[in-house]
Amino acid sequence: MASTQLLSPGTALPDRVLRLEGSSNFRDLGGYGTADGRRLQWRRIFRSDHLAGLSAADLQTLADLKIAHSVDFRGANECTVQGYAWPQFTRHAFMVEPTVVQRTQSLLAAGHRLTAADTVGLMQETYLSFVRDNADRFARLFQLLLRSEAPLVFHCTAGKDRTGWAAALILHALGVPREQIMEDYLLTNAHYRRPVAAGAGRLPEEVLEVLWRVQAPFLDCAFDLVEREHGGMDRYLAEVLGMDRAARAELARRYLE
């Protein structure tokens, strides 16, 4: 079970990855350093794959962590197939539909034989849609972080793409360097366990490897689009997501030490 004790000088750092029975990619954003020498507080903001399979022991761990909110970025069908309503925290549905799944199915239905290169392109298109088409969902996450100081977890199905972009936005808003943002993003490949039957028999393994893992170019293409169309992440945060200088200062006050 995860420890929720406050840290004191000389205390070992908490584990970043929480070992849960029903989730393989539940991670703490705490401990990352900022450009001005501060660090994110531990046990405040978490990222995860979906929470529908949590065991009783897992739920007790989340209760010990005092998690009060979950932000669910999954689409309508995902929430129906693997829904949850755990009474100990409030679920907020900020739906971002999984366009890569829809596009993959359309191509297969048209008789197209998907390759790994095709799939990389589909994944990059998905990340561009996060920036262009789904900004309001990620803005709502920031609003919740500023409205409540209770510990929070945000997630999608695998905790890698929609969740990965959300984590990148939060970390950048708090002043974490790009290198550490990418380090956190790529941790998914070390910990996430894809469903055994996911795509079995329908897609080549090389395609599944792209779909169920993350690659630096996925996240980079979103950052590059923000740079081209908005003049950089700072302006995008302020003008599109509502995180101006004052809002970011308040976010830092709440979540940095």
UniProtKB/TrEMBL annotation:
Entries under InterPro entries matching the protein: Prot-tyrosine_phosphatase-like, Tyr/Ser_Pase_IphP-type, Tyr_Pase_AS
An example of a Pfam family matching this protein is: Y_phosphatase3
Family according to the record: Belongs to the protein-tyrosine phosphatase family.
Q: What is this protein called?
A: Tyrosine-protein phosphatase
Could you tell me which species this protein originates from?
Answer: Comamonas endophytica
